[in-house]
Structures are given as C-alpha cells and as structure tokens.
Task: structure prediction
Amino acid sequence: MVDLTAAPEILRTADGRPLKSALALAQRKAKWRAFFLVLPLLAFVVLTFIVPILKMLERSVNHDGFSANAPTLVAWFNHHPATADIPEDAYAALVTDLKQMQKDKTAGAAGSRINYTVPGTISVFKSAARSAETMQPPYKDALIASNKMWADPLVWVAMRNAASAYTSDFYMVSADLKRDANDSLVRVEDNQRIYVYLFVKTFVLSIVITVACLLLAFPIAHLLAVLPMAKSNLLMILVLLPFWTSLLVRTSSWIAILQEQGIINDLMVWIGVFGEDGRVRMIYNQTGTIIVMTHILLPFMVLPLYSVMRVIPPSYARAARSLGATSWTTFRRIYLPQTLPGIAAGSLLVFILAVGYYITPALVGGADGQLISNLISFHMNKANWSMAAALAAILLAAVLLLYWLYDRLIGIDRLKLG
Amino acid sequence: MALPVYASPLERVWYYTFRTLCALIFLFLVAPILIVIPLSFNVEPYFSFTHKMLALDPSGYSLRWYDTLLTLGVNAPEDAVRDSTWWGMVWEQATWVKAAKNSLWIGMWATILATVLGTTAALGLSRPEMPYRRLIMALLISPMIVPIIIIGTGLFFFYSSACISPDNWLGWLLSPFLSAKGCLANSHLGIILAHATLGIPFVIITVTATLSGFDQSLIRASASLGANPRTTFFKVIMPLILPGVISGALFAFVTSFDEVVAVLFIAGPDQQTIPRQMWNGIREAISPAILAVATILVIVSIAMLATVELLRRRSERLRGVTPH
Result:
C-alpha cells in the first residue's frame, strides 16, 4: 500500500534540479528578457518626457528672484519673527540689498517675484534701487517718503514669504487667492479673478465640445456599423481623412469658411438670408473655437463608438420589436445601453484632448475663445516661467486624473487608431 | 441596413431623414478639407470664391500661390530666367523649401527613433511575462494624452539647462548636433528627440494591435525547426508585424510633420518647419499661399491614408491565414 503521508518524490529536470526551481528560474529569465526589450524606450521616455515634466513641476514651486538677490533682508527675516510694526534695521537691510541690486541690475528680478502676489511692485523695486545709493538714515522714513508702498504690510508679508526660493505662491495665485496683512489667505477682488474663471470656462467648453462630438458621431458610427463591410470601409475613409490631415490645414480652411468674407457668409448673402451688412462673424471668437474643435476631435469619438456598435448583435433589437416595443423604446431601452462603453470611451478621450487644446483656440479663438493652455503660453511668452509652470501643473493633474479614469474604465490597451 | 418591406410610412420617413443627416455629417467632416484645393488656385488674394471662379472662368484661376511658395525669400528679380541657377537658388534660399527640408529631416529621424524603440518595446510589452505591463504601457502612451503645451513647457525648461560644454570629449562629440552654445534648445537634435517622444505612443498602439493577433506558437515552431532568435525575428515575426510597424511609422511621421507647439517653444531661427511657417502665416497676414501649402499637405495625407488602409487589409489577410 502506498504511504500517502510520506513526502512525494520531487520532480526533477534531466540535469537533476528540482522542477519547481527550474521553472521559476526560466520564468524569471523570460520576465527579464521581456523587460530588457522595453528598457531602451523606457529610458528614452524618462529622459525626454518625465525629466522635462519634473523640471516644470520644480519651477512651479521655485523662484529665487527675491531670495537670491536680497540676502541681507532674508537673513534678517530668518532671525526676527513677523511683527506688525517693521523696525528700522529691516529697512536698513533692505537698502543694503537694493544698493547691491542696482549694481547687479537685479532689482527687476527681485521685484517680479513680489509682483506676483502684490501687483505693481516691479517699478517700486526698480526706482528704490536707483535712489538707494543717495538715501540717508533713517532708511525707514527715506524709503516710505520715496514710495508709501514700502509701509504697506502686504509688501512685507510678500517679502517674508519670498525669502525662501521654494514657495506655493504660484498655486495660490492660480487659485485666485492672495495673502492679507495677517498672512492668511483671502480671495482676490472680483475683477482680478481670472484663473479660476478660465479653468471653469475650459471645463465647460470642453463639455460642450464633447457633447457636440457625441451628437454628430452617434448617427454616423451607427450607420458605419450596420452597413455592409465594403460600403462602411469606404465611408470610414471619410472619417479617417480628417484624422490624417494637418491640424493647421484644417484650421486655415475653417477660417476660409467661417470668416466674415468667407464661404458661408457669401452663400448666405447670395441666397438672401441676410444682406451685405448682415454678415455674421463666426470665427475669432468662442463659436469658432467650438466649431473647429468639434470638427478636429470628431474622429476620436467616431472610432470608439464604431468599434462598440459593430459587435452589437442586431437580434436584440429585432426581438424587442417583435415583442411589441416601438422603435423609440427599442432604441432607448435596448440599443443605447449597449453602446454605453463606446460613449464612455469616446467622451472621455475627446474631453481629455479638449481640456488641453492649444493650437485651435490660439488661432481662431479671438478674445473670448481662449482656454487655459493659451494662458500658459501667454505667461511663457512674458517670461513668467513659474506662473506658467504652476498653471501647467494644475492642468496636468486634471488630465492625469482623467487618464487614470480612462484606464480604469476602458483600459488604454483598447485605444485604437482606425 | 436595407429598409424592411414591413416598414411603416413613419419609419420610411425616418430612414431617409437619418440617411440625409449622416450625409450632412460626413460633409461636415470632409468638406473643410477638400475646400482648400479649389481655393488655392484663386487668382485674387482672397480667402473665398470669386464670381469668376464660380463661373468656372479660367482667368479666375491661377498657379500664382504655388509660385509664391518657390519664390518667397529668393534673392532674384521677378522676371529672372528659370534656368538651373534659378532652381539652385530656390533650393538654397526659398523660405518654404527650407522649411520643407527641415520638416522632412526632423520627421525622418524622429520616425526612425520612434519606430525602432517603439517596435522593440511593443515586442516586450506583448509578451505575457512582461512585469508591470499596465503601468509601463500607461506611461509610454501618456505623451499622446498629456497636452502638448505642458510637454512644450517642460521641454523648454529642460532643454535650456541641458547644455554640455564643447571642451570635454562628450561635448565635442555631440557639438554638431547641438546649438552654438552646446544646448539642446535651438538645435535640430532637441526637436528630433521631442518629436520621437510624441510619435512613440502611435507606434506602440499600432504594433501591439498587430501583435495581439500574432500566433505565439509560430515562434516555438520556428525554434523547433532550428532557427536562432535572430532568424526567427527577421524571417517569422517581422514579415507578420511589418504592416503594423509601417502604419506606426507613418503615424509617427505625420505627428512630427504636423507638430508646431513644441517647435515654437524649443526651436531657434534655424529650425523653421512647415507647420511653424504656416502658424506664422495664419497669425499674421493670411494669404492664399497658406492654402497652396495646405493643398499639398492634403494630397500627402490622402496618399498616407491610402497606404495605411492597404497595409491594414494586408495585415488582416495575413492574420486570417494563421489558424486560431
């Protein structure tokens, strides 16, 4: 009789090693082999994509314009706690630094750092640096006499906060917040709230564009899915052509179509819908941004919808009809729920792409069709690096959140290109 | 989706309404692309059809905007004889020709980089043993998802600090590819690296899609017949995934050829590309010369689309042959 309690004989490979460890070794080797194939690209992407983005994130919390150029005052801040009344020796330290700034021509750099939180201080710094050499003690009275902003507690709160190169000030400004004299956060005045408004507007416009894409894509995706393969392949080319055509080509042709002297207006005048003086401007404004972006992002909605609709069996709809459902009920209760994965995939993709769009709003958006990306570019052109980086970081966080959602709901390996 | 014989009148009306609606949406998709072709032959400097054009009068049409593409920036009189010296000057000096050369050069290298690295990685990613597959895939696709303005901003900060002095040996070796100051900013290499990064997601997506239908037992069959891994790769794997690789390469090339934002952020005056030139043209005085370029680009994209469609069908046919 076989003794079941005894340890079974270990299976061994031909060269006598236990099979279990031999298998584990082979699997580990296969794992490494697969990983080594990916490694070069991974290193490349880290260098050209991850490192630049980390650099940008670092910029968004780092600005040494003030801390590097006002060492004496920074040292004074480090040794004295914040008080409501600023004593003479702080002003003396400031004047020492201002003299040096005048020599190094760095008053603008220092002032621009303070300017982010207290607007209008660049010129105050520059003029104070110019006259610093001739100032006589007491410096407090001399500085305040030159410009009464030097008595403003807000300026001193801002300078104390700028004493360290690392700061969250740029995120504070991006949220339309500022510090009051007690160093606590308050909202800025109504007429200066631009960033939150623009984030909300970008969000709302992206939703409008996504809905427009969905409404236009649904019928044609359905048509493509139910037509015989030969015909639908032919029509599919009409969807893919915009996909392959240069963005700038599509944008410039929309300018030709929508502008005041453009094709649609000419047509309307010719038909007689309105006269020469009734020409409507449909571009260089928000309408232009919506129309052109809907056109550009439409293929990204059609493709996922189509790939879901193609595999929906028509027998369900037929069964519903045979059981007495009207065509509307069949659509609403049977067909539409089955297309939901496609709707989710397409909408998320279009929304993600719309939120960060730059080229089209910049070219056809005019004054009121600009999105958050355009403001980032504006700050980059004005050399407000840290401000641009902070706005970009917020946008990045939003996009990554949506990307994560996309991966969870749909899975990125389901992404297809035609 | 033929109309069933038992359809009610209301359903008939809906059927034709639906078809019309779809036709209009297809028109919305394609008309704005095709409309640039006739407009680019306008004899007047307008962005719209003139009465003469609508009347199909030949004098309303001309090739003058295509001529502008050749003569803009050339240091020669209007009525110069178009002999070989003139063409030589066009090749060296014309703004659009220079831009086209830059775009093609950058696009070619970016495509080669993206395709080689992307295909190798896709081979690894589609192996079942690949660790952290989902995470790595998400990372490699993300250049397509992250807004280009963010990538451009990051590259601007990174490139302006990524400098190497030509005094040491590595800097000396790299100096022909870098800017005069030895930085990646304002250099061709900088743009090529950025564009390769943007093209990689497309290569990964197309090649992994082709590999998903790839029968892994073919590799074992090839090995059992005595082929070494290299032979297996070039004789068995490569011919089967080639359609996907070429589609991916074309996507990567188009991405680079159409990219303007990163170029605006990191390029210097020597790296004028076609999209950058178009961007400036659209922002400043918009002339039909832009439409002439646009027409050429539309024809190029139609050719590329046709190639990719043919490759896709070939790939499907090839994969249809392998038993499942």
